[in-house]
């Protein structure tokens, strides 16, 4: 049965970086369980990992986080980035339990396909099947835990997923996109690419689907951008915000300094933005 994992059951060994590059085949013996949800898309099954907790007195629907990309091009070779290679399952779960306890609300980190214990191929990110797998997993988790709405936070490539999911789902209350790759074709043009490091050009581009978001917009859409972001330019992020607004979707676009040499990491700020919005609304 689908259930939250526990710290004691999780390894302190870092995730293997090579699997983030090569992909992970779904284990036929793995189904739903603690920290696992099995989903099927296009006749192929995958098992997505998740981490999280819900305090006994937890209030309201969950905040669900989708992390950024885990691999990068280094000297012409695809490798897992240093942050990913230093992260263990126990690290992810501990942070989830911290946020859940601090804010008294269910908090969950859903692992994208191919990383953090999920099966699949992380090199196939931004394509329709990645979106469909995450969408299906969210539906199953929502049904299992009896949630009525979802609050989503995505950093970078996870922000791409949040934007894509906003176009598909009508049950998103608060959506936070931090440093999001939300205008993929524009980013490729700005960098002179025919495809990004995935090698794929059949990506799902969220900016093309803002009219779908407008049909069932979240109660709150928050976009976080560092004007000097060197990985996903502020112009790419702002183009998506402008397209949403042009379709009639209200967006709270905030500019703030990001962590890291590339001024790209707004993960913590994104999570706090969601919790702060939900807390302030509960106090109104």
Task: Tell me the CATH architecture.
Answer: 3-Layer(aba) Sandwich
Q: Span between N and C termini?
A: 37 Å
Number of helices: 9
Q: Could you give the order of strands across the largest sheet?
A: 1-2-6-3-7-8-9-10
Instruction: Note the run of SSEs as H and E.
Output: HEEEEEHHEHEHEHHEHEH
Per DSSP E runs of 2 or more residues, the count of β-strands stands at 10
Report the helical percentage: 25-40%
What spatial form do the alpha-carbon principal axes imply? globular
- Arithmetic mean of pLDDT: 96
Task: Tell me the β content.
Answer: 15-25%
Largest sheet: 8 strands, mixed
CATH top level is Alpha Beta
By CATH, the topology is Rossmann fold
Total separate domains: 1
The CATH H-level superfamily is Alpha/Beta hydrolase fold, catalytic domain
**Unreliable stretches:** none
The class by helix and strand makeup works out as alpha/beta
Rg estimate, integer Å: 18 Å
Describe this structure in words.
The structure is a single chain. The chain has 284 residues and is an alpha/beta fold. The chain has a single domain, classed as Rossmann fold, CATH 3.40.50. Helices cover 35% and strands 19% of the residues. The chain has helices at residues 17-22, 82-85, 89-103, 128-145, 157-168, 184-191, 210-215, 234-246, 267-283, and strands at residues 36-41, 44-53, 63-66, 71-74, 77-80, 107-110, 150-155, 172-178, 220-225, 252-255. The strands form 2 sheets. It has an 8-stranded mixed β-sheet with strand order 1-2-6-3-7-8-9-10, sandwiched between helices. It has a two-stranded antiparallel ribbon with strand order 4-5. Helix 4 (128-145) crosses helix 5.
